[in-house]
Amino acid sequence: MSGPRPVVLSGPSGAGKSTLMKRLMKEHEGIFGFSVSHTTRNPRPGEENGKDYHYTTREVMQDGIDNGDFIENAEFSGNLYGTSKAAIQDVIDKNLMCILDVDIQGVRRIKETELNPIYISIQPPSMDVLEKRLRDRQTETEESLQKRLEAARIDMELSSEPGVFDVVIINDDLERAYEELRDLLSDEIQKVKEVKS
Ligand code: ADP
Ligand code: 5GP
Q1: Whose CA is nearest to atom 15 of ligand 2?
Q2: Is a pLDDT exceeding 80 seen at residue 3?
Q3: In this structure, which ligand is nearest to the CA of 151?
Q4: Which end of the chain is more exposed for a tag (fewer CB within 10 A), N or C?
Q5: Which among 79, 78, 115, 122 has a CA at the least distance from the CA of 101?
Q6: 74 CA: nearest ligand 2 atom
Q7: Closest by Cα among 79, 49, 47 to 62
Q8: CB–CB of 52/67 below 8 Å?
Q9: Strand order across the 97-101 sheet
């Protein structure tokens, strides 16, 4: 696959992936393109179909998976999530650096593909902080919050295994974590800028 190297952001729900990614994309307009995943979960207030996710039903998504339309898919907290081949191709066609936000199952599946991204894990400083962030975000029911915390425990354990991620960023102070992410990607950002100029 040609063009800039994609970036996979992973880490527990509530760790701050979207916050960091949105800031990166805003401060580097015309550099990054988000791989818009499909999901069967309901949109949160403020989320837009086709921008944050392609919201779909389990039946339609399963048909797409059976059809070979997805490079990876996973069950997370009672819903299906997946990256379609078209989502990646859309970004590549625009010559942008593709950012994917996937869970740890997605990371494992993407490793079996040709995508060859930079793998970055965004981690909270502790489970207590994670729980507080998820509660304060006010997007989850108690049941989905508990499922996310359970998935977070598994994620935190697997992410610390050597070789899974290229870099693990602890999102304690947002400013500091953002700078770490931006500095990490600065060479790739520069390459995209040079191609465009
Ligand atoms: P994710 O995309 O990983 O699920 P979000 O980006 O939605 O996580 O962040 C979860 C919540 O935590 C949001 O309400 C966000 O504003 C907040 N948040 C993110 N990073 C920090 C941080 N460093 N300090 C405090 N709150 C944060
Ligand atoms: P949320 O519901 O909070 O948006 O996402 C829940 C989890 O699903 C997060 O860990 C997120 O990274 C993951 N996720 C989002 N899109 C995909 C996808 O396309 N594939 C996989 N495997 N996980 C995804």
Answers
A1: 102
A2: no
A3: 2
A4: C
A5: 122
A6: 22
A7: 79
A8: no
A9: 32-34, 97-101, 7-10, 118-123, 167-170
Whether this prediction's pTM lies above 0.90 is answered by yes
Domain extents in the chain = 7-192
Residue type, 113: T
Among residues 6, 13, 19, which one has the least CA distance to residue 39?
13
Chain-wide mean pLDDT for the chain?
Answer: 96
Which residue among 39, 53, 133 has the greatest number of ligand 1 atoms within 8 angstroms of its CB, and so is best to mutate?
133
CATH architecture of structural domain 7-192: 3-Layer(aba) Sandwich (3.40)
Tell how far the Cα of 20 is from the centroid of ligand 1, in angstroms.
Answer: 8
Mean pLDDT of 111-127: 97
Cβ neighbour number for residue 110 with a 10 Å cutoff: 21
Q: Which of 191, 195, 160 is nearest to 7 (CA)?
A: 191
In the numeric block, which tokens belong to residue 80?
A: 């299906």
Give whole-number Cα distances, 193 to 8, 18, 149, 150, in Å: 20, 23, 39, 40
Task: Name the catalytic one among 23, 133, 137, 182.
Answer: 137
Measure 141 CA to ligand 1 centroid, in angstroms: 17
- Ligand 2, atom 21: nearest CA belongs to which residue? 102
